[in-house]
Amino acid sequence: MEKPILWIVIPCYNEQEVLPITAPLFRDKVLELVGNGKISEKSRVLFVNDGSSDDTWKIISDLSREDDHYLGISQSRNRGHQNALLAGLMEAKDKCDVTISIDCDGQDDINAMNEMIDRYHEGCEIVYGVRSSRQTDTWFKRTTAQGFYKVMNKMGAETIYNHADYRLVSARVLEHFADFKEVNIFLRGMFPLVGFKSTCVEYERAERIAGESHYPLHKMIKLAIEGITSLSTKPISMITRFGFFCVFLGFIGIIWAIVMVFLNMTVAGWASLACITLFIGGVQLLSLGIIGEYIGKIYLETKQRPRYIISDRTWDEKED
Fold first, then answer.
1. How confident is the model at residue 320, as a pLDDT?
2. Distance CA 140, CA 144 (A)
3. Into how many domains does the chain fold?
4. Is pTM, for the whole model, over 0.90?
5. The domain that contains 123 carries what CATH number?
């Protein structure tokens, strides 16, 4: 049986501090898997520079010139983690049999790749890396992260609990995934939609080796909103149901007001009226905001702008 070609796809944004530390770890893992006879000697490590403003691309270019196991592509500008990862996967799908995506910061346990490859040999087309615990997180980070997954699933966006973007995906899955043309992407919620045989591999997540996290709370909230509105229309359905509920309450209120008039029991109540008015006004503005979020996405989808533009490839440099 021919050994599969593996490409490890790693998005990078301003990672000049951590890249020189983790890059050799990724290469050594490839060499280990090759030595164990699990993957082909043609396997590679692909770095995707997401428009970094530091020396990240220079480091990637230097690594690729020094060692053929390293490859790199660079986006023409910063497009965000999800688009950078997508660019790497689409670049890899025609050149390998299987990909493993992982962040550059060294937090995800690269030894879990061994089990991922084993599951691939057993017939799994997608293998999700799932955190076994969150002991290394602060209470706030742990609570907000767990709440993130629960909210996503409640809102109708199908995700794997405690799974981020550490996953194995076969080239066959990527061929079908390429048919997903939407501009607003949330990869961890889109891959379950493709189907095929899948499983999970648990691992312990460590502290970041160097540098600073690029996912503070406001970006997590933005990612959650992006995921929900990209994969589900449930918020609009909730607005509709709540609207019917408010109409029902209003109808009951009208009946009550008429009855009070006939019983001559009306009481002046400007405070209660003001509170109700403010409440309904707030609900209307919130509803318009949610609907506007969807309309904005429709607007972006109709433009059909490219999700990424690759400006440089290290193998072009090698040819030069």
1. 46
2. 6
3. 1
4. no
5. 3.90.550.10
